[in-house]
Design brief:
single chain; about 210 residues; two-stranded antiparallel ribbon; 6 helices; about 25% strand; binds 5-O-phosphono-beta-D-ribofuranosylamine; Formyl_transf_N
Length: about 210
């Protein structure tokens, strides 16, 4: 399975994926990394590991041009699975249509809480902090036309005392992301995910 990872920032999720591939947990390869920001440190992580990188600064492009640019690269690299790992932009609908059920996103909350338009990256942790919830977590899901609305693959919770700062919340949630995104990719690559009317079932008891 050939994977493309889309990033926007530090790329710690990308790093977790590369480590899971190196450890043999995920029998697949990352063939391409695309960043929406040319300064993303995740690009350095990919380069260090000899993975081809590209940058698509979507703010300078129309949605149609961005779709074409993304699809051209995904086809050129024969990509089977697209991972949004800390990618802070919306994937164009045309790309979702071509890769439906082949795009997986990690979101730093227990969807549907703190998800959808406006809830991404640090904004999520600030909203969680403001609301004072006692349980938050992370979600890995298939991407559909909506924002954070595709079928959920895995979720894991994080308990909060209420004393944590948004940064500390983010750190706790990131540790969960680094576990469940590689796990979801492993299950996908090993064909253990089954879509039952919009609910994702995991074959066997791997979870
Ligand atoms: C973090 O806010 C994470 O919760 C979200 O994207 C941001 C950065 O992730 N998924 P990464 O370190 O770039 O993978």
């Amino acid at each position: 399975v050939r994977i493309a990872v889309m990033i926007s920032g530090g790329g710690s999720n990308l790093q977790a994926l590369m480590d899971a591939i190196d450890s043999g947990q995920i029998p697949a390869e990352i063939a391409l990394v695309i960043s929406s920001d040319k300064k993303a440190y995740g690009l350095d992580r990919a380069k260090k590991r000899g993975i081809p990188v590209d940058c698509l600064p979507e703010k300078e492009m129309s949605e149609d041009l961005l779709s074409e640019e993304i699809l051209r690269r995904l086809h050129a690299f024969s990509i089977d699975l697209v991972l949004l790992a800390g990618y802070l932009k919306k994937i164009p609908e045309k790309v979702v249509k071509v890769y439906e059920e082949g795009i997986i996103n990690v979101h730093p909350s227990l969807i549907p809480a703190f998800s959808g338009k406006g809830f991404y990256g640090e904004k999520v942790h600030r909203a969680v902090h403001e609301r004072g919830v006692k349980i938050t977590g992370a979600t890995v899901h298939f991407v559909n036309e909506g924002m954070d609305e595709g079928p959920i693959i895995l979720q894991e919770s994080v308990s909060l005392t209420g004393l944590e700062t948004p940064e500390e919340i983010g750190k706790k949630v990131l540790e969960v992301e680094h576990r469940i995104l590689p796990k979801a990719v492993e299950l996908f690559v090993k064909n253990k995910l089954k879509n039952q009317q919009g609910r994702i079932l995991v074959k066997g008891d791997e979870v």
